[in-house]
């Protein structure tokens, strides 16, 4: 019997809620998977993409990942992986570096065969490149074929990948498809093919309430079975849902917090119903005083807003209006305003924002090449726009905190998208001014987190 761990979306390096403790949690969850693999003496660990949260992981996270993979190699358990949208880099990938160090195998069209099970890999593809097909090398000595891929398939929330069309075009009939990108565990059968997501190993979004874990795939005499296992050692998330009556308010919310063990937990308070005004700052401070690592309040009711010391009307129920007002004061370009709208549009998964941004900016520059450098003519908003998250949450969502039924958060710029940065004007950048424009486009389209890449280290 062959046993293989299928994991994905470990997002190592994600500094969720701007917390170093949370950054460490993501590495720790990956280390737990490796521990389980060694203890169970599985035949392989298969990773279906988004090993890292960012294509420029912190050196500490690289060191931790290499140490975990070295333990796996010492146990003679191969690590098989593909590249996800978050970690995708130009040309060489981190998996290539790990392969050079004999710590991993990057799966591709040529089968990696273990005990008559052939593993093929398909890195994340942008929607524009998904119709290219996959030219596989058929493994004659395999009795079971497994495809490892990354993307959200049609039929799931935010799904736009036609997996059936891909499978129909393959020269090899797949028995199993192991997937990443969707952060919840899913399993289904389609025309004799078992298709499954392992889910993420840590909560990359507050909306991921189910326990985190990975899949264990077993193959015995050609029969394939998949079971899901929970990781017990991940950070506790405590969800405190409060429905206020007409005469209830902050005291009821605080009492609800006192009924829960908050020690070292991420606490998500959701307020619905009616009732009196509730100060999110007071609630969050109360939770931290009781030992919470992080506390966030989501007031789903209509808010009226308060005025800060600078005189700007700001409400924790109305962050969008405050952000737009600040952007008007800063006199940002039309391109910047378009990007802001895209980033804060909840209907767009964060893992898809970059592609939408590329198309939007390309179109804008074709119509007006100076739109990236000239301040936009935008009136300060006077209407009230209600929102259901705190100012901190809004900032974090632009990093990556999206509902992970759509995968979470955000460095999925493809090779094609990187190249278009210097091509979007349709002309060669030969002057100093053009070079400055290119630099500004790169700043707009490339997320910068102040971390150095491995190229810098080397």
Short description:
The chain has helices at 20-40, 59-74, 94-100, 163-168, 250-258, 280-289, 319-330, 334-343, 353-367, 391-399, 415-420, 432-445, 454-457, and strands at residues 2-7, 44-47, 79-81, 105-106, 112-114, 117-121, 144-150, 176-180, 186-190, 193-197, 213-220, 223-230, 237-244, 266-273, 294-299, 306-307, 313-314. With 458 residues, the chain is an alpha/beta fold.
Pick out its properties.
single chain; 458 residues; alpha/beta; Purple Acid Phosphatase, chain A, domain 2; 6-stranded mixed sheet; 13 helices; 30% helix; globular
Structural class per helix/strand content? Answer: alpha/beta
Strand line-up of the largest beta sheet: 4-3-2-1-11-12
Taken in chain order, the helices and strands follow as: EHEHEHEEEEHEEEEEEHEHEEEHHHHHHH
Would you tell me the overall average pLDDT? Answer: 80
Radius of gyration: 24 Å
CATH architect. name of one domain: 4-Layer Sandwich
In percent terms, what proportion of residues is strand?
Answer: 15-25%
Number of helices: 13
Main pleated-sheet profile: 6 strands, mixed
Give the secondary structure arrangement, pairings included.
Blueprint: E1 2-7, H1 20-40, E2 44-47, H2 59-74, E3 79-81, H3 94-100, E4 105-106, E5 112-114, E6 117-121, E7 144-150, H4 163-168, E8 176-180, E9 186-190, E10 193-197, E11 213-220, E12 223-230, E13 237-244, H5 250-258, E14 266-273, H6 280-289, E15 294-299, E16 306-307, E17 313-314, H7 319-330, H8 334-343, H9 353-367, H10 391-399, H11 415-420, H12 432-445, H13 454-457
Parallel strand pairs: 1-2, 2-3, 3-4, 6-7, 7-8, 8-10, 13-14, 14-15
Antiparallel strand pairs: 1-11, 5-6, 9-10, 11-12, 16-17
Helix pairs in contact: 1-2, 8-9
